[in-house]
Fold this protein.
Amino acid sequence: NLFGFARRFVKTFPTYSVMLVDIRNHGASQGFSAPHSLENCAKDLKELIQTTKISPRSIIGHSYGGAVAWMFARLYGENLPSVWLLDTLADPQIENILFALEQCSPCHFC
């Protein structure tokens, strides 16, 4: 899961901070009103970023969280430096994924 990845990431890059986010109705994040769409999950993430006044260097998403990261980049990624998708099939149309990632500035593919 993403917790193990985050722990290894912080050990490797000790100057970075990591915030792990429960997506609506996953983990301890319960009680959100429907619809529980990718768009609303991305909006939740945007509101969290605005509320905490952080400027993320990256959004990293695992599994369904990767789909949320992809949607966030698609909707709000104009100032997002990078997006990492781990074990994610965010969109069956690869052109849509590439378009969303190109919205991030600068865009690097590895």
User: Anything to note?
Assistant: The radius of gyration is 14 Å. The CA atoms of residues 11 and 83 lie 20 Å apart. The first strand starts at residue 58 and ends at 62. Strands lie at 58-62, 82-86.
